[in-house]
Amino acid sequence: MSCPVTLLYVRTYVHSTEDVDKVLQALKTVVSGGYVMRSIYGHYRNPIQIIEVKLHDWEALEALKTIVSRLDDVEYVLLLSGVEGNRLYVKFDKQHAYRGVLKISQSDDVIYVELRTRSLVVKDITQFLNSIRKDISG
After folding, report:
1. What is the pLDDT of residue 33?
2. I need a labelling partner for 8 at 20 to 30 A (CA). Which of 56, 74, 87, 121 fits?
């Protein structure tokens, strides 16, 4: 059986005014897994760290289930608004994540999540997410 999920990609930025350990703690609220950190410079030559996590197939599906299980009804509906074709795009508030809470945000200080599914397996990602939520809640 083919896994319905191909990739769960998570990214966040650590600005020079932020504590890397606190941002990593926030990231781990969204997803655990091996991360890669790289350095870039901003528009005004300010140092910025980019932290990324890429999970594939079954590992990505399990991470997705964990994310969905941690969302209340309102946040779950907001999550569904990020569905585009066979992908899901969602941004979680970094400050809330640091405190252990997943809140969807439209601000710039976020943890960005992209989910890709196999279009041949998942015809309707909203229906797929609803089935995950139903399985989790019993």
Report:
1. 87
2. 74
- At 64 the pLDDT is 97
Per-residue pLDDT reduced to its tens digit, 96-116: 999 999 999 999 999 999 999
Report phi then psi at 81, rounded to 5. Answer: -70, -10
Q: Which pLDDT score is estimated for 97?
A: 98
The confidence score (pLDDT) of residue 79 equals 96
DSSP string, the chain: ---SEEEEEEEEEEETTS-HHHHHHHHHHH--S--EEEEEE-TTS-EEEEEEEEEEHHHHHHHHHHHHHT--HHHHHHHHTTEETTEEEEEEEHHHHHTT---B--SSSEEEEEEEE-TTT-S-HHHHHHHHHHHHH-
Q: Is the pTM of this model over 0.85?
A: yes
Both tokens assigned to 104: 């969807």
If 0-12 CB within 10 Å is exposed, 13-18 middle and 19+ buried, where does residue 55 land? buried
